[in-house]
Specification:
- The complex is a heterodimer.
- In chain A, a hairpin with a 4-residue loop joins β1 (about 45) and β2 (about 50).
- Chain A is built from twelve helices and two strands, in the order ααββαααααααααα.
- The N and C termini of chain A lie far apart (about 65 Å).
- A two-stranded antiparallel ribbon of chain A has the order 1-2.
- By secondary structure, chain A is mainly α.
- Chain A is about 75% helix and about 0% strand.
- Chain A has a single domain (about 35-280), classed as MetI-like fold (Orthogonal Bundle), CATH 1.10.3720.
- Helices cover about 75% and strands about 0% of the residues of chain B.
- By secondary structure, chain B is mostly helical.
- In chain B, α2 runs antiparallel to α3, α2 packs across α8 and α6 (about 130-140) packs antiparallel against α7.
- Chain B contains eleven helices and two strands.
- Chain B has a two-stranded antiparallel ribbon with strand order 1-2.
- Chain B has a single domain (about 30-240), classed as MetI-like (MetI-like fold, Orthogonal Bundle).
- The chains are: A mainly alpha, B mainly alpha.
- Chains A and B meet through α1, α4, α5, α9 and α11 of A and α2, α3, α4, α5 and α7 of B.
């Protein structure tokens, strides 16, 4: 009897969670779709966002993301390769320089995004004089995404069987080409996962962007212009604009869709790019 | 950049009136703590139950789609949760007890946000429990419920605790969703229906116009927040490392 009750309880909890998720998602999809149209995607916002669309905001969002990924992918892959392949291994756990870097990265990965916002505002916007711009927003996001991206990629690289490294060395491959043609491709699932995590966090971010990339909802002319990200737009519409809720829901729907699309793209891209190289030769 | 010398004011000043030079952040520290604890109290039972559901009860297909759903839940941007909380949850609470935007709303939204973390980490901790132990328990004639409660859960205890601490760190660091639903009045949290302001929300709200001392105060509260989160993350890592079964 008690056993029955227990399993009933478990099923009920699971049901509750499912219902809540569909409640949230359902609201976003239904209220979002009812306000959605092609002109909403392309037009500039009018009347503080109540009317018009989100064209310039989509452009700013993508530009910020582009800056963030453009900085964090090469830097992140480089550090990950260094950590897993080149950092001196010490027999005492936690004594080497690499271990110190890992610890720092883990600590940074947990820092709240609003604190990254403070840092970005003080460092990029004021100290480096970039002001409220897409560039400083993107760089702030890069700082935020890097720790988690590096750790995921490094985990993937470290998981590659050592036989592959020895095999490559035995075939006379240089260390560079072993990394480029063997290690990175075989770690590609982890790299894709890290990329997805990074894209998800960066696209969804609001708190770190308010004080770095700013509020301006015009079409950005260059990377030095302030641009409003989609998440900031949702926040502004729902908090500061009365009657902005339909547009906010439509933007939320677009934001979730954007994250899903970008994740799929990242997945196919890494798959395709790496598979071609590991099987071509 | 960090407030110099005046750190005592943080804990001694009665409240937060930055324009009058009063920087008492304790009301907001308590508000943040109350939100975090409330959310954890709700999310941990739900999360562990979800993990048990995926690990022991759900048929394979359902378990997989349930995990996919949890991942989706984890991927929804916090500002969307905030929007939903503001337009659905807050009016709902307001109908019951004014003003709606309150500690309770923040707790509920945070619960939704940290539930996937608790559930997924608990699941991997449960999945790592060796099958032998469970088979042994079954051979001893212990019921399913007994196996789960007195064998699997204790064995997965460290992993679950680590996941919980990680979720606490996330709840503490969350800004937007909390900012949008909690009402943002600086005061000690005295009831579930009182509007409160968290440390994170305070930074986001005042950064736009803060200067000099005020700005330094905000940076210092950011530092305090970071330290709190780091302690939680460090404890989480320690517990998850000790994930051994005897």
């Amino acid at each position: 009897m008690a056993d029955r009750l227990f399993s009933l309880l478990i099923w009920a909890t699971a049901g509750l969670v499912v219902v809540t998720l569909f409640w949230v998602l359902g609201d976003v999809v239904i209220k979002g779709l009812s306000h959605l149209s092609w002109s909403f995607l392309l037009d500039a916002p009018r009347d503080a966002g109540r009317g018009g669309g989100i064209g310039p905001i989509l452009v700013s969002t993508l530009l910020i993301l582009l800056v963030a990924l453009g900085v964090s992918i090469p830097l992140g892959l480089g550090v990950a390769v260094w950590l897993s392949e080149f950092s001196p291994r010490s027999s005492h756990k936690g004594r080497s320089f690499g271990a110190a870097i890992r610890l720092t990265l883990d600590a940074l990965a947990g820092v709240p995004s609003i604190v990254y916002g403070l840092f970005g505002n003080a460092f990029f916007s004021i100290f480096l004089g970039l002001g409220f711009s897409i560039l400083s927003g993107g760089l702030t996001l890069a700082c935020m995404v890097l720790p988690i991206f590096i750790r995921t990629c490094e985990a993937g690289l470290s998981a590659v069987n050592d036989d592959w490294r020895r095999g490559a060395a035995a075939l006379g491959m240089t260390r560079t080409s072993a990394i480029w043609y063997i290690l990175l491709p075989s770690a590609s699932p982890a790299i894709a996962a890290g990329l997805a995590l990074g894209i998800g966090r960066a696209t969804a971010e609001t708190a770190a962007l308010i004080f770095t990339s700013g509020y301006v909802d015009r079409m950005p002319g260059s990377l030095m212009d302030s641009g409003r990200a989609l998440a900031v737009h949702i926040y502004d519409l729902s908090m500061n604009v009365t009657g902005g809720d339909p547009a906010a829901y439509a933007s939320a729907f677009i934001l979730i869709t954007l994250i899903i699309i970008l994740n799929a793209l990242a997945q196919t891209f890494t798959d395709h790019w790496f598979r071609k190289r590991i099987y071509a030769s | 950049m960090i407030g110099q010398g005046g750190w005592k004011a943080f804990f001694l000043d009665r409240s937060w009136y930055p324009l009058e030079g009063k920087f008492g952040i304790m009301p907001m520290v308590w508000a943040s703590a109350a939100m975090m604890l409330g959310a954890v109290l709700l999310a941990v039972p739900l999360g562990i139950a979800s993990a048990i559901f995926i690990r022991f009860y759900a048929p394979k297909a359902i378990a997989q789609s349930y995990r996919l759903m949890l991942n989706l839940l984890a991927g929804i941007p916090s500002v969307v949760y905030g929007l939903w909380g503001l337009t659905v949850l807050v009016p709902l609470i307001a109908r019951w007890q004014q003003p709606g935007a309150s500690l309770l709303a923040a707790i509920l939204v945070l619960t939704l946000m940290i539930l996937p973390t608790v559930a997924l980490t608990s699941f991997s901790a449960l999945a790592a429990v060796p099958k032998d132990i469970l088979a042994g328990a079954a051979a001893l004639g212990i019921t399913r419920k007994g196996q789960i409660i007195s064998v699997a859960l204790p064995a997965a205890r460290n992993g679950i605790l680590g996941g919980t601490l990680l979720a606490m760190a996330r709840a503490l660091g969350e800004t937007m969703a909390v900012l949008m639903v909690s009402g943002n009045v600086v005061q000690y949290p005295t009831g579930l229906f009182e509007p409160v302001r968290s440390l994170t929300a305070n930074i986001a709200l005042e950064m736009a116009y803060a200067t000099d001392q005020h700005r330094a105060g905000l940076f210092a509260s950011g530092l305090l927040l970071t330290l709190l989160v780091l302690v939680l993350a460090w404890l989480a890592a320690r517990y998850q490392e000790r994930n051994t079964y005897g």
